[in-house]
Amino acid sequence: MAYKAQYYPGKTSVAQNRKKMMDPAYKLEKLRSLSDDDVVLMLGHRAPGSAYKTAHPPLTEANEPDDPVRKIVEPIAGAKAGDRIRYNQYTDSMYFAPMVPYLRSWAAATRYRGVDPGTLSGRQIIETRERDLERITKEIMETEMFDPAREGIRGCTVHGHSLRLNENGMMFDMLQRVVLDKSGKVFQVKDQVGDPLDRKVDLGKPMSEAELKKRTTIYRVDGVAFRSDDEVVGWVQRVFTLRTKCGFSPKV
Amino acid sequence: MKKKFAEDPTSQTTKYKYEGYTQSKRKVEFKKAGDAIAKKRGISAYNPMVHMGGIPLGQRQLTPYTVSGTDITVEGDDLHFVNNAAMQQFWDDIRRTVIVGLDTAHQTLEKRLGKAVTPETISNYLAVLNHAMPGAAVVQEHMVETHPLLTDDCYVKVFTGDDDLADSIDKQYVIDINKAFPKDQAAQLKKAIGKSLWQAVHIPTAVVRTCDGGTTSRWSAMQIGMSFIDAYKMCAGEAAVADLAFAAKHAAMVEMGNLLPARRARGPNNPGGLSFGFIADMVQTNRKYPDDPVKSTLEVVASGCMLYDQIWLGSYMSGGVGFTQYATAAYTDDILDDFTYYGYDYIKGKYGVGKAKCNMDVVNDIGTEVTLYGIEQYEKYPTTLEDHFGGSQRATVLSAAAGATTAMATGNANAGLSAWYLAMYLHKEAWGRLGFFGYDLQDQCGATNVFSCRSDEGAIDELRGPNYPNYAMNVGHQGGYAGIAGAPHFARGDAWVASPLIKICFADKNLAFDFTEPRKEFARGAIREFMPAGERSLIIPAK
Fold first, then answer.
1. 3-state secondary structure of A91
2. For residue B114, how many other CB atoms are within 10 A of its CB?
3. Would the CB atoms of A121 and B392 count as touching at under 8 Å?
4. For the complex shown, is ipTM > 0.90?
5. What are the beta bridge partners of residue B199?
6. Residues of A with Cβ-Cβ distance to B391 under 8 angstroms
7. Hey, is the C-beta of A238 within 8 angstroms of any chain B C-beta?
């Protein structure tokens, strides 16, 4: 390449954190350990230990026609096996959660192959082959991309990203999929669509407020104000102006 | 926010009580009603306990809403259009309206038939028409007719820019432009329409509720035709009648909403064909409050959000629980009001209203300042963020404020439209989120189309509408665009936005809905104080 991708403008901590999350060369910091079965339980797509359901036979048996694109693109493991496409979906609190929805999608695009991200405001979803999904979910939930108090794995009834926090610092969840117990740890007690789990999953202690503010990727006036990041604001205005002018006439 | 939430609006925490639906009197009422319905008919009905996981709404606080610009606080459910007679009448009053010119018909009568047309004959014609239009006979024997009490909201008035003619016609049938509008607005309107004479036709609400908006021009033309025959002693069916019918139905007819193409599949006078400029003209706030362009803009936003989001996209184009709260974000709790008045003060101080240069530097400046102000208000007041719990709600409100104030500063609706899209980009980068899926296309591609000349992309905002290609499928936008269409005109003191005819037609106290105060009317509907037209009590068993 003629240039090195910069991923995101700005020198504030928020901008730098966004850059790190998007840059596949940056190794995400591991903050907790989850077993493979923990992840399978929380996702709720299959019972731990059960076989992956398939949407089609393995590609080796598929007799696909000769195609140059198929030769160039290496199928991901789940595609090779014929896995169903399944999803994970997260809600990020606006109170200094480590991740924000668009950043999840950008990171999904730069870090992972074969993933279809969707971005809304109260939730962000990725859909991919089931076994690849489990691998990705484990990485997300074991690392600095996740905080158990300010983020939630929620397949439905996602209301909460913009609500005031509970007095114990937890993001609101109508379906109460997680609980903060007396030990100060958060436990997942229901899967992402709210079905009770056979056993709870230990998500560890939430980050402190200071750590959240250090790691967060949301601008806030009581943290890093968006207004203060001149470079980002300036780039937004530039992109906007250029798109507008080009829409009128590319020569302009 | 203090009326809505018990706590300090700056607090970032609260105690969640998981109380359920019993917090809300209306929802308790719904539950009782659902139980009674199920028992009576033997089929289950409303039951909040079937909500996901058996957990009913109301695990968080269920909060009431104060309709902006009023001191009326209502339950959210009462702002669903199905539960609000005022909202229904707002739309009924529009879809039952057409404007029909009289000049073509009069020329036919005078030149082709040699009949005299005078203020006296016109007044007589209007007396006949006001008998006929609700559904009464004027020419034939042994006709069955509609009951006047079921159609008492139906009438026809005329208007003209010719003061002498207006003074000569029976006053009960005249929309007096001089009385309805402030002096300078009246002068503009009369100059625009000149000596032409127009009929403001409002067919019965009961008819458009049984049929549809496409009925209006046809019903109107039928009764106009018969009334000409009666008033001018014509042969019922002579060739000249065809000229009068064609004029009434087509050549001289101004409908409120255009016919829609097959993929939207609706006839004329349905919301999908109602342009932003037209709805801005239907709202009459700027003649009542000519010195407060922000208020006029906000009333247009409210009207547009209600009609386009709640009724058009939320029902005609989809349905069910609907899209009420995408719309109410723009007309409750004075949040949009605060952001827009802030922006208005900013532009007054820095540029002067309507005096800013129309260039990208100005759009960038005002759009950025108003958007960042709004974002910071949401951040400083967590209850405001909780009130507008959806990103789509916040996106609409931030962009509407930025767009409206930029339009007011520059006197140009497309400059305002441009600022709407800047606000979306800034919002997205600030919080790393925007609205629902559809915002990605509409609001990130929209900037390129603001000044485009290409047929599927460009148009002045006043002439865009719900069927403009990128706008057709997403809630949370059309009402804001309508407000942006109106804003520069209100700020400049223009008497109308897109059509002087529509502006005058709706300047009429006899309409069932008060178009000078839409938000107040919606609030009255919510507290069950609004009496709609077309009630069927007369013809149904008494309870």
1. strand
2. 7
3. yes
4. yes
5. B100, B158
6. 120-122, 162
7. no
How far apart, in whole angstroms, are the C-alpha atoms of residue B146 and residue A148? Answer: 67
User: In tens digits, what is the pLDDT along chain B, a chain of 543 residues?
Assistant: 766 777 788 999 999 999 999 999 999 999 999 999 999 999 999 999 999 999 999 999 999 999 999 999 999 999 999 999 999 999 999 999 999 999 999 999 999 999 999 999 999 999 999 999 999 999 999 999 999 999 999 999 999 999 999 999 999 999 999 999 999 999 999 999 999 999 999 999 999 999 999 999 999 999 999 999 999 999 998 999 999 999 999 999 999 999 999 988 899 999 999 999 999 999 999 999 999 999 999 999 999 999 999 999 999 999 999 999 999 999 999 999 999 999 999 999 999 999 999 999 999 999 999 999 999 999 999 999 999 999 999 999 999 999 999 999 999 999 999 999 999 999 999 999 999 988 988 998 899 999 988 878 889 999 999 999 889 889 999 999 999 999 999 999 999 999 999 999 999 999 999 999 999 999 999 999 999 999 999 999 998
Interatomic CA distance for residues B427 and B406, integer angstroms: 17
Active site residue B373: no
Token pair belonging to B409:
């500063």
Nearest by CB to A163, from B18, B386, B450: name it.
B386
Q: What is the pLDDT of residues A50-101, one digit of tens each?
A: 999 999 999 999 888 999 999 999 999 999 999 999 999 999 999 999 999 9
Residue B478 appears among annotated catalytic residues: no
Closest listed residue to residue B508, CA positions, set B169, B159, B218, B214 = B159
- Do A240 and B447 lie within an 8 Å CB cutoff? yes
What is the amino acid identity at position B212?
A: D
Residues B38 and B73 sit within 8 Å (Cβ to Cβ): no
Pairing relationship of beta strands B65-66 and B73-74 according to DSSP bridges = antiparallel
Give the integer Cα–Cα distance in Å for A208 and A195.
29
Q: Which of B25, B18, B30, B34 is nearest to B74 (CA)?
A: B25
Residues B182-219 as b or e (16 or more Cβ within 10 Å = b)? beebbebbbebbeebbbbbbbbbbbbbbeeebbbbbbb
User: Alpha-carbon distance B251 to B244, whole Å?
Assistant: 10
% of chain B beyond a pLDDT of 70: 100
Task: For the beta carbon of residue B361, count every other beta carbon within 10 angstroms.
Answer: 11
Cα distance between residue B373 and residue B508, in whole Å: 38
Which of B461, B462, B467, B470 minimizes the C-alpha distance to B262?
B467
Active site residue B476: no
Residues 6+ apart with CB under 8 A from B279: B300, B303, B304, B307, B482
Catalytic position from the list B34, B390, B391, B438:
B438
Q: What is the CA radius of gyration of chain A?
A: 20
Residue B339 token pair: 């952001």
| Nearest CB neighbour to A121, from listed B386, B435, B451 | B435
State the number of CA atoms in the 13 A half-sphere of B88 facing the CB: 20
Please, which residues bridge with residue A87 across strands? A127
Long-range pairs for B87-90: beta carbons < 8 A, 24 or more residues apart:
B87/B306, B87/B310, B87/B311, B87/B522, B87/B525, B88/B525, B88/B532, B89/B205, B89/B512, B89/B513, B89/B521, B89/B525, B89/B530, B89/B532, B89/B533, B90/B303, B90/B306, B90/B307, B90/B513, B90/B515, B90/B518, B90/B521, B90/B522
| B244, amino acid identity | L
Helix (H, G, I), strand (E, B) or coil at B531: coil
Picking from A79, A27, A83, A76, the residue whose alpha carbon sits closest to that of residue A51 is A83
Distance CA B341, CA B331 (A): 14
A140 to each of A27, A154, A156, A162, how far by Cα in Å? 12, 14, 19, 22
Sheet holding A178-180, edge to edge: A178-180, A186-190, A196-204
State the pairing for strand pair B155-160/B197-202: antiparallel
B514 three-state secondary structure: coil
In angstroms, rounded to a whole number, what is the distance separating the alpha carbons of residues B160 and B265? 35
